Amino acid sequence: MLEGIVRSVVAGRVEEVHAPGRSHVTVTLADGSRSSETGYESCLPLPLPFWRRWSRRTIYSAYLPPLE
Question: What domain count does the chain have?
Fold first, then answer.
């Protein structure tokens, strides 16, 4: 499982959604299955309805080694 996640990160199959005090990361594995994790860290535990829909989304690109 860990090797599959690392390969997916290197291949650029990672998406992250940010909102105040929370983050949701989804990694799409080579077989098409998805692994996700949500983290909450805030001094004010305010409810944010539908935060995954309206918050900032980041799609990470594939890792490319530096050309020499």
Answer: 1
Average pLDDT of the chain to the nearest whole number: 89
33-61 pLDDT tens trace: 999 999 988 776 778 899 999 999 999 99
> Can you give the residue range of the structural domain that contains 22?
2-60
CA 64 to CA 7: how far, in whole Å? 13
Residue 59 contacts residue 15 (beta carbons within 8 Å) = yes
pLDDT for residue 68 is more than 70: no
Does residue 29 form part of some domain?
A: yes
- Residue 36 falls within a domain, yes or no? yes
Flag whether 41 is in a domain. yes
Cβ partners under 8 Å of residue 27, min gap 6: 5, 8, 9, 13, 14, 34, 35, 36
